[in-house]
Amino acid sequence: MSNEATLHGHPEVGISHDAHHGEHGDHHHQSFITKYVFSQDHKMIAKQFLITGMIWAIIGGLMSVLFRLQLGYPDAHFQFLEDLLGSKWAKGGQIQPEFYYALVTMHGTILVFFVLTGGLSGTFANFLIPLQIGARDMASPFLNMLSYWFFLTASVVMMSSLFIETGPASGGWTSYPPLSALGDASEGSKTGMDLWIVSMALFVVSSLLGGLNYISTILNMRTKGMSMTRLPLTIWALFFTAVLGVLSFPVLLSGFILLLFDRHGGTSFYLSDIFLATTGKALPNEGGSAILYQHLFWFLGHPEVYIIILPAMGLVSEVLSVNSRKPIFGYMAMVGSLFAIAILAFLVWAHHMFVTGLNPFLGSVFVLLTLLIAVPSAIKVFNWLTTLWRGNIRFTPAMLFAIGFVSTFISGGLTGIFLGNSTLDIPLHDTYFVIAHFHIVMGVSGILGMFAGIYHWFPKMYGRYMNNTLAYIHFWITLIGAYLIFWPMHYEGLAGMPRRYLDYSNWISFNQFGGLNRFISTVAMIVFAVQLLFVFNFFYSIFKGRRVMTRNPWDATTLEWTTPIRPGHGNWPGEIPEVHRWPYDYAKDGRDFIPQTEPLGSNENEH
Amino acid sequence: MSTFFVLLILFFGFLITFQIAKASEYVGVLKGEKKNFEQNNRVNGFLMIVFLVLGLIGVYWCNEMYRGKILGESASKHGEQIDTMLYITIAITGVMFVITQILLFWFAYKYQYSEKRKAHYFPHDNRLEVIWTVVPAIALTVLVGFGLFYWFRITGEAPQDANPIEVTGKQFGWIFRYPGKDKTFGKKYYQNISDKDNNSLGLIWDDANTHDDVVVGNEMYIEVNKPVKLIINSRDVIHDVGLVYFRQKMDAVPGTPTTLWFVPKFTTEEMKKKLGNPDFEYEISCDQMCGRGHYTMRGIIKVVTHEEYVLWLAKQQPNYAQAFPDKSPAGPAAPVKTDSAKAAIVTPAPAVTASVATK
Question: Full-prediction pTM beyond 0.80?
Answer without folding.
Answer: yes
